Amino acid sequence: MTRTSKGGGSAKSVIGLIGIYALIYVVCSVMFVALFHTGILKDMGVLMYRGIVFIVITGAIAAIVMGVIRKFWGFITVRDIIMMFVIFCCVNMVLFTLIPVTVERSVSVFMLSYMDENSDQTFTQESVGEVFTSKYVEDYGAFEKRFDEQVVTGTIEENPDGSYTITERGRFIVKLFRTIAEWFDTDRRLVYPNEN
User: Fold this and answer.
1) Got the DSSP string for 152-167?
2) 166 forms bridges with which residues in the sheet?
């Protein structure tokens, strides 16, 4: 049965193809999540980078599985194999950066989680701010973690005297962030810290 077939056979092929895409996507997405619970790349300190590697690995597996299925169902083409990889990587990259990466970095997530664990208390804005500074910033080393990430990514580099300077890659990233800030009219103070 080929894709160019008309009638009921073609409709069945389309439904079957959608089902195959969905099944492979779900199975490989479960594999993607499961990889975070293994020791693989555990020493990679930046969650974002670890996730990207896992997405590419499981995306490749999804494409391979689609290729194997192609041997049994002729209506699957090379284009489907490529699309399986692209769709899997794109969708999971969006979900990964939107949810897990946000959970790891978000001030809001920490604030709400802390208030939930201490729901028998009431809070003022100042008291929550103090907890954020003492626990999130100082105890959990939030600043140090982000600083170290920039060293790893090569946006800043250490000088012989132990000080740090921004690299050309870092300057490029800043320009990119400022352009995005202009496009979406975000808070300029985050990309122009010296402005009032």
Assistant:
1) HHTSEEE-TTS-EEE-
2) 156
- Residue 196's alpha-carbon distances to 47, 111, 171, 182, in angstroms, are 33, 26, 21, 17
Q: Which residues pair with 164 in a beta bridge?
A: 158
Q: How does the average pLDDT of the chain come out, rounded?
A: 88
Question: pLDDT tens across 74-105, in order?
Answer: 788 999 999 999 999 999 999 999 888 888 87
What does the pLDDT look like over 8-31, one tens digit per residue?
A: 457 777 888 899 999 999 999 999
**Maximum Cα interatomic distance, the chain, rounded to a whole number of Å:** 74
Which two tokens mark 131? 């907890």
Burial of 58 (0-12, 13-18, 19+ CB in 10 A): buried
Using the CB atoms, write b or e for 96-112: b if 16+ within 10 Å. beeeeeeeeeeeeebbe
- Name the amino acid, one letter, at 14: V
CB 190 within 8 A of CB 174: no
Residues 108 and 51: beta-carbon distance below 8 Å: no
- As a whole number of angstroms, the distance between CA 166 and CA 157 comes to 6
In the numeric block, the tokens 């907890």 are attached to 131
Contact 152, 131 (CB under 8 A): no
E strand residue ranges, 36-184: 156-158, 164-166
